[in-house]
Design goal:
Layout lengths: L4 E13 L11 E4 L2 E6 L1 H10 L14 E4 L2 H12 L4 H16 L5 H8 L1 E5 L5 E6 L8 E4 H18 L5 H8 L2 H8 L6 H7 L15 E3 L2 E3 L4 E9 L2 H5 L7 E19 H9 L12 H16 L6 H4 L5 E9 L21 H20 L4 E6 L4 H7 L7 H14 L6
Antiparallel strand pairs: 1-11, 1-12, 2-3, 3-9, 4-7, 5-6, 8-11, 9-11, 10-11, 12-13
Helix pairs in contact: 2-3, 2-5, 3-5, 5-6, 11-15, 13-14
Length: 418
């Protein structure tokens, strides 16, 4: 069986934390199965996995990075040109031309207007004083890969060299930014970087390639009803206390939640290989799968060990998955969140054991209804033989062994059921 889809299911518990906040500072929530649950957004999860620095970090792989910023053109094109001796005015003008070439002239009208006018500040006499060109930014965060940025920098460098004067930039840009330049930009391998290869990017440009996400991440939700409380806290003023006065320097409150979260991730393996190697998704079996195998193995480790979380200093929200189920197969993926459609109770055997039972019973019912061709591996704390039987999974691998098994299946493009 060729492993077209990888599905990763986890259960992770966090006590007394505020993992993901909404716009007013409360924990994010979602009603599911008629009960309000605490949730962690997919954006939050993806960012923590993508930016983590440490063991199993994606950045340790020899793959191009993805930069997400409004300031990319200023920091990585204008500033390098200035360091090379190009005047700030000429560097900014050249950067604007390559920005418009890559993103389209109508990409951000607000910034186009700002870039035309010099920044002005008042001098001591109240007169307007020119301070040089405005920073070359974009109205929205733009997702670019380091290969694209390097190519755009070289184009800007060539424009600046040809023009030598900001007033002559348009003529130089017409020569440099021709159809051949567009083809060269489109032909870059893994142009958008590893982040875009995994999580996709949306662009409206005719020059940059839009990328579909190969890694699909669901919002994590608690398997039970929300559990929260308001934490009242105070900050003591050391000097006031030393003077014998009572009270505090600050009083506040924040929300804390506890929960056992179900998380679900799907990796479209042919699309991931296509995004990484630049080959059509239909030819993934003929492509080099080394990078995809290494990246996916690391992703499994990150999902199991990297914790999202706000208020790190006051809640230490660090935890690891209590259980992980991975599935490799070629059928349409499906979430197992419906195992917890009925909120799990903590009564009798406890929350984790009851969650295991709900998960196992749900998988067994699905298999009975639809059959199962996927290969599965499961590891979890205090899992009993009945659970493994219901899951139809091989017993007892560690998370590193599970990651290695998935990586090998992708490298060989072959996986057999246990």
């Amino acid at each position: 069986m060729n492993p077209r889809f990888l599905q990763i299911h986890t259960l992770a518990s966090y006590p007394g934390a505020l993992l993901n906040r909404d716009d007013v500072g409360f924990a994010k929530r979602l009603t599911f199965g008629g009960a309000v649950r605490t949730r962690i957004s997919s954006q939050c999860l993806k960012r923590h996995w993508r930016t983590f620095e440490g063991k199993h970090a994606i950045s340790e792989l020899d793959l191009p990075e993805t930069i997400r910023s409004r300031q990319t053109f200023q920091r990585l094109i204008v500033e390098p040109l200035i360091k090379e001796g190009v005047s700030p005015e000429l560097a900014a003008a050249a950067a604007i031309r390559v920005r418009d070439h890559a993103l389209g002239k109508n990409q951000d009208k607000a910034d186009a207007k700002e870039a035309k006018e010099a920044k002005e500040t008042k001098d001591a006499k109240g007169k307007q004083k020119a301070e040089g060109p405005a920073e070359v930014t974009t109205a929205q965060v733009v997702v670019l890969g380091t290969p694209e940025i390097a190519h755009l920098l070289e184009l800007a460098r060539t424009i600046a060299s040809e023009a030598k004067d900001p007033k002559k930039v348009d003529d130089a840009a017409k020569k440099v930014l021709d159809k051949e330049a567009q083809k060269n930009l489109k032909a870059l391998k893994m142009a958008g970087g590893v982040g875009a290869a995994m999580f996709g990017r949306m662009v409206t440009s005719d020059v940059l390639a839009r990328g579909d996400a190969a890694v699909h991440v669901a919002h994590a939700i608690t398997v039970h009803k929300e559990e929260s409380e308001t934490d009242y806290f105070s900050a003591i003023d050391d000097y006031v206390r030393d003077d014998g006065e009572l009270g505090s320097g600050h009083i506040g409150n924040t929300e804390l939640t506890s929960g056992l979260y179900y998380s679900y991730v799907v990796v479209d393996i042919p699309l991931l290989i296509s995004n990484l190697e630049g080959t059509p998704a239909g030819d993934w079996l003929k492509a080099d799968r080394t990078n995809a195998a290494a990246l996916t193995a690391r992703l499994i480790q990150l999902i199991a060990t990297v914790s999202p979380g706000a208020k790190l200093g006051s809640t230490a929200p660090y935890s690891r998955a209590l259980a992980m189920l991975v599935e490799l197969g070629d059928e349409q993926p499906r979430t197992l969140a419906n195992a917890f459609l009925q909120p799990v109770s903590a009564q009798k055997e406890g929350l984790l054991a009851n969650s295991y039972r709900a998960l196992g019973n749900h998988v067994a019912a699905l298999d009975k209804m639809y059959g199962n061709d996927a290969a599965r591996r499961f590891c979890g704390l205090d899992a009993d033989p009945e659970l493994l039987s219901n899951l139809g999974a091989a017993a007892g691998p560690t998370v590193p062994e599970m990651a290695a098994w998935v990586g090998e299946a992708i490298r060989t493009a072959r996986v057999e059921k246990a």
